[in-house]
Amino acid sequence: MSDDDAESNIDDDPETVLDSLFATIKQRQEELPEDSYTASLFTHEKGENEVLEKLGEEATEVILAAKDDDLNDLQYESADFVYHLLVLFAMKGLDVDDLRDELESRF
Length: 107
Ligand SMILES: N=c1c2ncn([C@@H]3O[C@H](COP(=O)(O)OP(=O)(O)OP(=O)(O)O)[C@@H](O)[C@H]3O)c2ncn1[C@@H]1O[C@H](COP(=O)(O)O)[C@@H](O)[C@H]1O
Known about the structure:
This protein has 107 residues and is mainly alpha-helical.
């Protein structure tokens, strides 16, 4: 993490972690700070392909961790995957609420 302002998005309520993370991602998208990995995904020369490739890599790492029954790694790589998925949502103009709505509609 490179960020004082990201910390200001963090809420103590664990149910809002995804909202806080998404708010930070949107902030990076708007402000494009030079030292931010997130901002670099929005300005990458490969365009959205960079985050799409990352999602593919992280999905593979999730699968490998599961096959190895390495639960710590499964947790870690899953978080990497979800983070990159939320960056993709921001790129496409979707919101974390769209993901929540889709999941809720399946109850
Ligand atoms: N949640 C994340 C997050 N998850 C993963 N990553 C980055 O995603 C990249 C993943 O690429 P790799 O898999 O190649 O990473 P790696 O660590 O080299 O390789 P592995 O160990 O995963 O195999 C790494 O650079 C991670 O740092 C993240 N970068 C940022 N965030 C969040 O985004 C916020 C803003 O951060 P900045 O990007 O620094 O502005 C942070 O406060 C965090 O909340």
